[in-house]
Amino acid sequence: MTLLELKDVSVHYGRIQAIHNMSFTVGEGEIVSLIGANGAGKTTTMRTISGLLNPSHGSITFMGEDITKMKAHIRVVQGISQAPEGRGIFPAMTVLENLDMGTFGRKDRTGVSDDLERVFTLFPRLKEREKQYGGTMSGGEQQMLAIGRALMSRPKLLLLDEPSMGLAPQFIRQIFKIITEINSQGTTVLLVEQNANQALARAHRAFVLETGEITHSGTGKELLANPAIKEAYLGG
Ligand code: ATP
């Protein structure tokens, strides 16, 4: 089943067009990766799906409903949650308070405590540091916290913008393993990455974005084997 569909979406910053007539779908249960160079439009795409930016043209459908004009906070309640690029955690709040911010709008307290357990099982480090202030944690830990907070809204679709950015190699492997685990527990994932190798290896399907347009698409395996993509994105 199609969970998310972008149809002919264009996005402008003033007179600058960042996204050109983009169309793609994300199926329920998939990991879909968007790869591309700096400035290709990956973050713009994510922010348009989460509702922080408005398309100038085209439509976005989620679970069969047109959400093109829906406010960002309503999209969270509907099941779309984003862990933003640059982590975006609250530095002056503890780990636990940060995670609690992710439950905004939820009234099912038992569900919330189950989800907190799930986050602590995925990220034992967050449990160990639950009383520590977000801003005092390492980059890798803040990244885990951002993903954990996004999971606290129990999303159907998790948007991950550059989860491996700035992480040490051992954290990068760990983050991608955890993303696969989150997905195998039933959460659909749309992943934006500059680490194309890992992003393609973990994806069911993937798209390559160049200056705001999709130039290649296929299964993760197909794109990993594509000579043009190897040359441009996978270090030859
Ligand atoms: P990065 O990995 O560097 O974040 P990206 O693929 O996510 O790159 P975007 O940040 O989406 O790319 O940027 C797409 C295009 O839109 C770029 O040409 C960028 O310069 C432009 N752009 C992004 N944000 C703004 C803004 N606030 N105002 C004007 N132009 C912008």
TrEMBL record:
<dbReference type="InterPro" id="IPR052156">
    <property type="entry name" value="BCAA_Transport_ATP-bd_LivF"/>
</dbReference>
<keyword id="KW-0547">Nucleotide-binding</keyword>
<dbReference type="GO" id="GO:0005524">
    <property type="term" value="F:ATP binding"/>
</dbReference>
<dbReference type="Pfam" id="PF00005">
    <property type="entry name" value="ABC_tran"/>
</dbReference>
<dbReference type="InterPro" id="IPR003593">
    <property type="entry name" value="AAA+_ATPase"/>
</dbReference>
<keyword id="KW-0813">Transport</keyword>
<feature type="domain" description="ABC transporter">
    <location>
        <begin position="4"/>
        <end position="236"/>
    </location>
</feature>
<dbReference type="InterPro" id="IPR003439">
    <property type="entry name" value="ABC_transporter-like_ATP-bd"/>
</dbReference>
<dbReference type="InterPro" id="IPR030660">
    <property type="entry name" value="ABC_branched_ATPase_LivF/BraG"/>
</dbReference>
<keyword id="KW-0067">ATP-binding</keyword>
<dbReference type="GO" id="GO:0015807">
    <property type="term" value="P:L-amino acid transport"/>
</dbReference>
<dbReference type="GO" id="GO:0015658">
    <property type="term" value="F:branched-chain amino acid transmembrane transporter activity"/>
</dbReference>
<protein>
    <submittedName>
        <fullName>ABC transporter ATP-binding protein</fullName>
    </submittedName>
</protein>
<dbReference type="InterPro" id="IPR017871">
    <property type="entry name" value="ABC_transporter-like_CS"/>
</dbReference>
<dbReference type="InterPro" id="IPR027417">
    <property type="entry name" value="P-loop_NTPase"/>
</dbReference>
<dbReference type="GO" id="GO:0016887">
    <property type="term" value="F:ATP hydrolysis activity"/>
</dbReference>
<comment type="similarity">
    <text>Belongs to the ABC transporter superfamily.</text>
</comment>
<keyword id="KW-0029">Amino-acid transport</keyword>
